């Protein structure tokens, strides 16, 4: 119980410091409705948000509804997103997902975790983002690569899989911060706690981090020596 309490207190300290460091932290994908959000998040898997925003600026002009994506020519859609990683697979997922949305949900993006994760190419991470930012429903914590890396470095979890990491974080992070926690981790991961060479000397969390290069020999994100 004592360890759980101390971990919860430390998680709260971490959030407080990051909120001060990144007061305007929010989702960086561009979208104007739930369908655009869903598709942008699907495209963002293993691809930068900056690249996705560049592609969707034209994509959302060309395809303005679930029906338009559902009826798109597969090869043409793939070409439209060809600068995105795994564009062939993603084009197929988007087309199949929009066909389901049209036939089963009357063209509207569903609003439950179970319905969303039944869609082609939509996992829990994508569903969480859509629920949080499209439907104002917060059921969990979005675990992307930044959250995965930094939460392990900070000793908030020792798990490897996003689902298990999410479970651990939901026990430590106050529910009112579940949504913002992800954005704070992403901003911190981009600015300071980078994958290969984190700037520990400049980090606002350095004294709370058991992976700090200033005091420790092992990166808990990878369990490898610095």
DSSP strand tally? 2
Major β-sheet strand ordering:
1-2
Number of domains: 2
* Helix and strand composition category: mainly alpha
Mean pLDDT equals 96
Q: Unreliable stretches, pLDDT < 50, 5 or more residues? A: none
Tell me the radius of gyration. Answer: 19 Å
Proper CATH architecture of the largest domain: Orthogonal Bundle
Strand content: under 5%
CATH superfamily of the largest domain: Helix-hairpin-Helix base-excision DNA repair enzymes (C-terminal)
Report helical residue fraction.
55-70%
The CATH class of the largest domain: Mainly Alpha
Cofactor: [4Fe-4S] cluster
Binding site for [4Fe-4S] cluster: 193, 200, 203, 209
EC number: 4.2.99.18
Organism: Halocatena salina
Give a summary of the structure in a few sentences.
It is built from eleven helices and two strands. It is an all-alpha fold and 226 residues long. It has two domains: 2-25 and 142-225, Helix-hairpin-Helix base-excision DNA repair enzymes (C-terminal) (Endonuclease Iii, domain 2, Orthogonal Bundle); 34-134, Hypothetical protein, domain 2 (Endonuclease III, domain 1, Orthogonal Bundle).
């Amino acid at each position: 119980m004592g360890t759980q309490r101390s971990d919860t207190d430390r998680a709260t300290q971490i959030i407080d410091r990051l909120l001060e460091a990144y007061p305007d932290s929010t989702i960086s994908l561009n979208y104007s409705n739930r369908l655009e959000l869903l598709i942008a998040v699907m495209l963002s898997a293993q691809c930068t948000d900056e690249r996705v925003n560049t592609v969707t600026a034209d994509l959302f002009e060309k395809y303005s509804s679930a029906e338009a994506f559902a009826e798109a020519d597969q090869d043409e859609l793939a070409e439209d997103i060809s600068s995105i990683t795994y564009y062939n697979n993603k084009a197929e997922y988007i087309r199949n997902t929009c066909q389901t949305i049209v036939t089963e949900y009357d063209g509207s993006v569903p609003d439950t975790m179970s319905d969303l994760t039944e869609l082609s190419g939509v996992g829990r991470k994508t569903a969480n983002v859509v629920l949080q930012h499209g439907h104002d429903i917060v059921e969990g914590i979005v675990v992307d690569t930044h959250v995965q890396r930094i939460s392990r470095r900070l000793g908030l979890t020792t798990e490897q899989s996003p689902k298990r990491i999410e479970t651990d974080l939901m026990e430590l992070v106050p529910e009112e911060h579940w949504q913002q926690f992800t954005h704070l981790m992403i901003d911190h991961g981009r600015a300071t706690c980078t994958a290969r060479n984190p700037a520990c000397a400049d980090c606002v969390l350095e004294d709370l981090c058991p992976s700090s290069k200033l005091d420790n020999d092992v990166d808990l994100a990878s369990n490898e020596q610095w």
